[in-house]
Design brief:
This protein is of the alpha+beta class. The chain has three helices and three strands. It has a three-stranded antiparallel β-sheet, with no helix packed on it.
Amino acid sequence: MAPTNSSLPEELTPRSADLHPPLAEVQERLSARLPTQEEATTLRISTSLAVLSLTRVATDVTGRVVEVALLVLPGDRADALFTTSLTTKEWSAKR
């Protein structure tokens, strides 16, 4: 959430870093499976077409979960690229 008096995106990044501890871990699980009836209806696919299910959980250095996401994509038209770059002050100092 951005403060109402902040109009520029670059003003948000330092505020966010000051308010929240840095991320420590991101776990992503990708699996292929058949869709539920609700997923098939939402995606407008057959229940016999596989879907890719991605579950993402991010935790900060205090162990608090700060992000959870579940994505379900049709298996015949999905492409996934995962890039996670987590930089902490300790890691940067070692380099």
